[in-house]
Structures are given as C-alpha cells and as structure tokens.
Amino acid sequence: MTAQPSPLPSAPAVTRLGLGLAALGRPAYINLGHDADLGADKSVEALRDNAFEVLDTAWAAGIRYFDAARSYGLAEVFLGDWLAARGHAARVGSKWGYTYVADWQADADTHEVKSHDLATVQRQWPETLAALGRQPDLYLIHSATLETGVLDNPEVLRYLAELTAGGVRVGLSTSGPQQAATIQRALAMRVDGRNPLSAVQATWNLLEPSAGAALEQAHAAGWTVVVKEALANGKLTQRGLSGAGDVPPALARAAQQAGVTPDAVALAAALAQPWADVVLSGASTPAQLQDNLAALHVQPDLGELFKLKQDPEAYWKTRSGLSWN
C-alpha cells in the first residue's frame, strides 16, 4: 500500500507562524540591513550561535515549522544540529534546485546557481537528508517557474513521485510575476494519473499579493500553503521602502494604532488570509522575531493596507535589483 504524506498542521494553537532560515545560514542575503543584523563576526561559528539563539526564541514562542533550502548556506546543517541538540520534534521543510556557491564570502559575485534537472535533485536529496539528520516533511522545488521547464520534465516528476510515495509531501516554491500561472500549472499536473505535488510556498505580501487567488485554489485542493517574504525582504519593516526608515503611510498608521512595529502588521495581514497554513518569519535576530510575534495579536484593516499593492512586474524588477549584504 502506498504511503501518503501526513497533513502538515499549523504549529500548536498558539501560532501559525513558521521560521525561515534564508537569512540565518549564510553571511549575505538580500534583506535590507542584513549585514548589520549579523554584526562584524560572520564566521561559521558566529552564525551558528546566532541561528541557535533565534531558533530557541522561536521554539519558546510556540513555532514548530522551520524552513530551509540547500542554497541557504549551512541553514540545513544548523537546523539539523539544533534539532539534535535540543531533542525537538518539529516540522521541517527544505528545497532543492539552487546550489550555494559563495564559499562563505559575503562579497561573492555569485551566491547561488539554479538548476532544476534530475541530476540536481538526485544529488541534493541525500545532501538534505545528511544535513538535517532526518527526512523533511515538505520538500519543494526551489523557485519553480514555467521558464525552467521543471514542471514538464518527466524524469524529475517521476523522481518526486517516488518521494511522495515514500511519505514526503512534495511541492514547489514560486517567485516572479508569474507565480499564479506557475501554481495553476502545478495544480493541473499529473504523473501516471496522479499529481505528485501537494504543497506550495509562495511570495505574498501587501506589495505583491497577486498569487492570492491561486494560493486559495491550492488550499481548496488540499495543498499545504506556506507564505514567504511577507515582509518584502525588509521593505515592510521599520527600515522601509528606502531602507532608511520610511514605511508606507498606511502601514505606519496601522502599526502606530496597534502599538506594534510595521512588520507585525504586515505579517498579520498574511496570517489573516484563510488559505495560508503557515506564514514564515524571516527574522535574523531574536529581537526581530519578538517583533514579528506581535502579529499574532493584531487585526489590521486590510481594506486600507491592500491599497499598497504594486504592479507585479515592477515589484519583481525592484526585488531583482536588491544587493546581497
């Protein structure tokens, strides 16, 4: 009898927030102010200590879903070591399709290389198992797009179908202005009459909510839906759109009225979407995570906040220009 993936519940009733490790496992990332968050010492040991501190803060707050990827530097290793050291039983997601190539150099010309072929997933799946010390609950194609052809690659899809048969909930993450089309293509996919995919992680935030309808369709189809980049890589935080403290006026007003920081309001907006099973915090420090956690107690006026949305093409063009720091 074929084993079926178990449902991914939201973390204990205290929170639907998860923690993403994109900014914790490597010395450079595209979040605004990331360099200052990590401090001067960006050695492996220093980042490991910081990751453990953030993970401990998350666990104490009730967070039970943690998201990593092969390309997040040593994020999988840090997470696997932390789980083993603490003895925690958590839900874990990871991703394949990008390879980290910066060799721990924050000023590297290239930080990650994308490849969605069979050789990559065959290499990275055992690497993920070794780094985590266990099988992930979710295993996603990293930033799948229609252009890469991964959703039309029969060899890759059959390999993923085998993982699904082994009890892994397999899916995709998406990026770019065509997220909705990619998700809809994934929902319609079949391998030997069945869809091996049943999870999606997508960018959704107050500036770029265009994938919302497709994510609602995925949720209705029984897929696990995870929201990433709810803070738009720092644009919806106190660092603001310019990186110098300007936040959109509507967001600033909502935060002031609620007595919280802007990031909490932006995360609360994502948590208010009924199709979102997990919303990821991408905090780099315990203090940032504590600010994020206030989202659990905020009920924002979505009507005003939805006026912040931008044209998807413009949003993603700006995002592609963010510098690694």
Automatic annotation (TrEMBL):
SUPFAM superfamilies reported in the protein's UniProt record: NAD(P)-linked oxidoreductase (SSF51430)
Xref: CDD domains: AKR_unchar
Domain NADP-dependent oxidoreductase: 48-299
Domain of life: Bacteria
Name assigned to this protein: NADP-dependent oxidoreductase domain-containing protein
Matching PANTHER family: D-THREO-ALDOSE 1-DEHYDROGENASE, NADP-DEPENDENT OXIDOREDUCTASE DOMAIN-CONTAINING PROTEIN
